[in-house]
Structures
1.
Amino acid sequence: MLDVEDLRIRFGTLEAVRGASFAIAEGESFGLVGESGSGKSTILRALAGLNRDWDGTVRLAGEPLGRLRDRAFFRRVQMVFQDPYGSLHPRQTIDRILAEPLIVHGFGDIDARICRALEEVSLPAAMRFRYPHQLSGGQRQRVAIARALISEPEVLLLDEPTSALDVSVQAEVLNLLTDLRRARGLTYLMVGHNLAVVTHLCERIAVMSHGEIVETVTAEDLRQGRVQHPHTVELRALSL
Ligand code: ADP
Ligand code: MG
């Protein structure tokens, strides 16, 4: 579903991503872990079209993504950020926030789609008339997930989607993401630093260090300690 080959991203003289390659099957949930600054968010931002200055090949269901913005591609690939407050416009009601992608991508039945989207993330319909600051952190992340899903994408890019939440709310949001993936047959690419969280959601995990993928393992391999690279061993000792 998503093929990334030799992705390279520079910021001036810094090589933030140094030839990352991975392929994610349809319906698969793939994780990227690694220390802070290893290039995880940079990869997601490039795939979400937020940074158009990269080299390499990216294919969605076999179709190559050009470096220019392609509206169809970016409807099919949506992103959820770590901090749902930062990513929701503070002066827009939830209604407006959810209507915007529908308008941009030319969907009809906006009202019905907004109601369905809120229901899908288990928020009451009356929430649509509130502003982001009137919601809890977990509710805001549910709105961000609803907004990402409302244009019916195939791939969801998740950048530490539960890191900013309380532990009890983290589990709820992870369970919601698991259910949504099953119900919709979505493909996930999730970034995280907490291995327990990433192995909960992801079937395969690539370990990054200094802009490179040093090892790709299954969640089960990680849990059982069947890992090779010293960096993976260390990461596992720190967070599992
Ligand atoms: P991670 O998400 O793994 O913590 P990032 O992808 O955010 O890491 O960052 C990777 C590296 O690229 C870091 O050294 C960071 O400082 C740098 N970086 C990220 N975004 C930019 C930017 N817009 N301009 C310059 N440097 C950046
Ligand atoms: Mg990051």
2.
Amino acid sequence: DRLSLWGGRFAGGPADALAALSKSTHFDWRLAPYDIAGSRAHAKVLHGAGLLDADALRQMLSALDQLLADVRSEAFTSAPDDEDVHTALERGLIERAGADVGGRLRAGRSRNDQVATLFRMYLRDHARAVSALVLDVVDALVLQARTHLGVAMPGRTHMQHAQPVLLSHHLLAHAWALLRDVQRWQDWDRRTDESPYGSGALAGSSLGLDPEAVAHDLGFSRATANSIDGTASRDFVAEFCFISAMTAVDISRIAEETILWATKEFGFVTLDDSYSTGSSIMPQKKNPDVAELARGKAGRLIGDLSGLMATLKALPLAYNRDLQEDKEPVFDAVDTLEVLLPAFSGMVATLTFHPERLEELAPQGFSLATDIAEWLVRQGVPFRVAHEVAGACVRECEERGVELWDLTDDDLQRISKHLTPGVHDVLSVPGSLASRDAVGGTAPARVAEQLELAAAEARQA
Ligand code: ARG
């Protein structure tokens, strides 16, 4: 019955409307295996503190094992009167171990320190799972970059042709951003690697329990230093939501480009049939739905982060029931990424690039003008003058409807005495690319090195 956790002080049970509002089993059930692991660890420290004899410990542990098996097989599920996963599992334990043994487990713990611990355990597992899926996207980008090493494309700023770059250089730019997201999860894990179990409701326990032992049992390096902080802080959830949102935003930038690149106007890529959809009315359509859903879901993950931050804002210490609202946003973030990322890495890995089209457009829009200016600087001309001269070349070409490389030696001399025939060396895409050969540049040799660096980071992550 609903009185089971706090019957003593109350004359009657909660109103149906309160029970309905309070209930969280429909979303916190996924914490059940972690709750049982926490209970096992707690039973052992109760035994260590002399509060549970060896026999009772054995019965308790075997009942918890049975309960876990029953949760897994769904022989045990939540009942209408269970408020949350913790209540339900206590009921399940008592059903299996009897009220005398089962009723001893709650000593020295509260759902406040329980949930704060289980939530960390769940998120640490999923941080690892999501990171692995992000690394699959990185692998797909690295694979494409490796396959197309040497292919030039128009690099853009403001969406306008800017300078030619290697396609691999562009793809690896996305890979680096995602590798940083993976690093963020690793950094986050170091901060989240502490267990609040033993904090009780807020003040700690008087029963001689050993929070460090529970922490180690549950895979944490240490117990939290402050029981109030341990039970009331949720910055680890907010940070998880931020990293999720950042990852989705990084993915959305690849998504947006894929959508553009797959248009007739760009013609840079063709989507694989298995990662595109058709139209129910237009027979010719092949739609980039994976990329569009990725773009859309980035907004949803930003919403998860903002919603959680709004819940946490100005919340006084210590635990407040508002904190029950911390779970759905981050569970949504986890579920969204775990369904999105496999589709996204599949889409990227199966993109067919069209090198002829990319290379044809690479030098267009006078994207070699900067190369003229920098060539002049290498001849000792001040950049201010060099910029003007290169600009004059563009104007001349625009008026005559020709390209920069169509200018003859005479044309060039007329524009500026500094423009000797040597400038032709950089008036080609390969010349331009090769000249950008400092670390981080788009020269083929540099990009080949960068590719190995990114691949190695992905392997080690
Ligand atoms: N279900 C709650 C939560 O997720 C934990 C229970 C704490 N409830 C309480 N009344 N102290 O935050």
